[in-house]
Amino acid sequence: MVMPFMALYVEELGAPKNRVEFYAGLAVSLSALASALVAPIWGKLADRYGRKPMMVRASLVMTFTMGGLAFIPNVAWLLILRVLNGIFAGYVPNSTALIASQAPQKQSGYALGTLATGVTGGTLLGPLIGGALAQWLGMRNVFLLVGTILLISTLMTIFFVKEDFEPVHRSEAMSTKKVFSKVQGIQIMIGLFVTSMIIQISAQSVSPILSLYIRHLGQTENLMFVAGIIVSAMGFSSMLSSSTLGKIGDRIGNHRLLLLALFYSFTMYFLCALAKTPLQLGILRFLYGFGTGALMPSINSLLSKITPREGISRIFSYNQMFSYMGQVVGPFVGSAVATQMGYRSVFYVTSAIVLFNFCWCFINFRKYIKVKEIV
Asked: Which residue has the higher pLDDT, 343 or 133?
């Protein structure tokens, strides 16, 4: 909800005019970087004490780190709270691990796809609602509202989320080294981690230049409105398809669906580079969303199948760490390519990265192409 006006808030806090974009980008990337660094620690604790306590911990602390942004006097406090927010974040990866550990394996794709629908819906609607509310209520009041929503989420998690888990004594807890040794296919696991990172790199590399690319394609009137529609188009199709694609993955094999989705994503990125009008770009972005709707549910389902139940939170936390790294690296890749080679080249380079990822995954899964399950 707060991303659309982060740069404006940095400006309101008194940042120098020529440093507003830098501090706004820093506020976003520091949070992702902090989350990446501490994710394995929270994963280890989740395997000992349960996923639900970690979800409560994340949402409760974020109630204060996000709500507290309404009261800060300067940019320094913004960066401090964003770092703290990143350190204590982790609601989504722990909810993913909880569902993966509780759902029957034969239905894990559908269950995780349903979760992805909710996450995508929030990612899609949050910026739209946040931007409108900031205009109506003011930016500081939106932070208070976000804090209130997170408090409600905390209470709902405490009273309505159920987890069948017995805390493990420290002496009985499986070491991280042993967890990795019991994974059924280390090469596949590493490939899935890298795929999670590349998904974020490919998504975030395009984000900084998308509105500029739309203007390059000839859109001059209502640029921000049209850019918002084109950005949201991918989210809508992804939200509509995640649950259904999760079912398809359970039926045909999640590794097969992942390969199809990666090749489809490569094709869509390549075609976006060839777009001649904003309308063509919007249609391609909408169609691309059907590919993203299959990617993360497939990865999470595959990880849940090759991971021992005693260490599932740690494996998911490492996967989330790679995702956060992609969120940090992606914008720099997009900006650098756009500066040196032009806007269309960002899509060409991104499509090449996704094609490389497809080839790597194909090599990893080559022995399982003809079978439904990899374990």
From this structure: 343
